[in-house]
Amino acid sequence: MGVDYSLPKIHIRMKKSICLSAVTIIKILLPLLCLAQSKNPALDSMGANMGRQNWERAIHWALKAAEADPSEKYWRYLNAAIFASRDHNADLAIKYAALVVDSEIATNAGFGSSFDWLRKDSRWIQLMDRVAQLKEKERQKRIQESLPFRDYQRELLGQTEDHLGSLVNIPSVEELYKAIQITSPVHSYSHSGRFGYYWLTLSDSLEFPYLVQLPINFDARRRYPMVVVLHGAVSRQTTLPDVADSTRHIAFFGRPFFDRAYQSGMIAVFPYSTNRYNWMMPDDGFDLVPDLVRQVKKMYSIDDQRVYLAGHSNGATGAFSYLLKQPGLFAGFAGLNNRPQVRTGGTFLLNGTNRSFYNVSTDNDYYFPIEGHRTLTNLTKQLNIDWVNQEVVGHRSHSFLVNSQDSTVVKVYEALFNNLLAKKRNPFQPRLYWECDNVRHGRVDWLAINELDTLIKTASWHTHQNFAVTGWREVMNPEIILDSTSQAFVFPRRSGAVKAYYSNNRFDLKTSRVKSVSIYLSPEMIDFKKPLAVVINGISVFNGNVSADREFVIDAYRQETDHQAIWIKRLQFTVPKK
């Protein structure tokens, strides 16, 4: 989610039972915040006096709130310390901060920029050294507790390798194909808890922790639908946690995602990312999610027809990016408070015709205005894209759908998950459209663009969709609508595109700025006992019999562990010149 300027940044966490409301805090702080941003010297003395008075009142009410709800007491002491520090009252700031450091919230409390002026105070240095020691002790404890999960993960992956070994011994392609369809690795699940903690190695030096939540009454004999949930605020993630932690990070991903997936009987996966390796930009970490799905399939029995991708904010933009760049593993996509734009290249909206997207927008979102979502929804209807946009109105901010648990939010997630679970992947659909400006993302289902030729003329049907977006809102105060307009999408590089169709053992492809392509074949698509015809741009490039490739089947299953999209032959073609 871009930058988070919401009130929880200074730990104002209120329950209805607390006499001090968030509205009261805002009324106390707003005059001071306005003055603090003023550059008028005539207001300096008045601002100082008013600021002193307001910070004292804020401290008073924070302490009152601590009395009203003992369970939130130390969070209110943290508020009091922040207010005292902003009042430049070192003694009070350190007094209340010390109470926080001596409490159970010490390692979760944020001693941020409000305390910068105290960094050289010896008392403050001692407090922060204590916090650092507590955090390191807690970290080491989590690492030690996670070690059994590393052994457990190796055990589960080893059981899948054993299953693969049994398949390798099957001599005929026909029997191998059927065995892959109907059999799965047999796993011994010695861990019976709700959460599992695992790691994905993206390269020799990159290890990403992720959290797996199992459904109620998990049954090892069943194949389960799976949802991968992508978090927001990727630009602010400079490091990875040592261990995925359900007790500390549920709020980070959004508790409603956990709750709804659990109630819906799904396996839910929650990966972490950094600002360098993530699902948005740069492209360095884009393989993280597909590789994660493949690994989870090697540890749990997943219904390949029902794998979904969802997220909030930057996570929603990530889900949208996989829809348009690499949708093959998924049946459907969803995003809350999405900015629908591919950040590493062109936003080729027609690629969305291959899958579906469930979009949820709020009316006071600074990330992408609700007006833009409405325009996009109309455009997707014109393009026959399976796109749903659900609006949540009532001055609802960017973070409302992940921070609130009221009845509105419950209904939003219920509708979102119902929509996803109704979708089933069909990797053999007879019509595909695919466009890319980087062949690293050149494949969808049975069609792949191997090489581009962007110097030749573009086909008349190869066009880009775009629209102007108005209604942008201020980040700090999203009630204010800005007088600005921008284009929804950007197209930094030339692209190539393919329209493909098959029927009755014949493939017809039309290309634009493409040099070579591949077609992946399955018995679900063609009859291998009959000749196959391939026509590209009206020119016949193949006409004859094809045979299954046993080693190709084994290699594909070893990588994908996919029991539905089982490809038994790949054909590659150079696009004929006209």
UniProtKB/TrEMBL annotation:
Drop me one GO molecular function for this one: hydrolase activity
Q: Tell me which UniProt keywords the record has, alphabetically.
A: Hydrolase, Signal
InterPro entries under this entry?
Answer: AB_hydrolase_fold, Plant_Biomass_Hydrol_Est
Give the superkingdom in one word. Bacteria
PANTHER family listed in its UniProt record: FERULOYL ESTERASE, UNNAMED PRODUCT-RELATED
Q: What is this protein called?
A: Poly(3-hydroxybutyrate) depolymerase
Origin organism of this chain? Dyadobacter helix
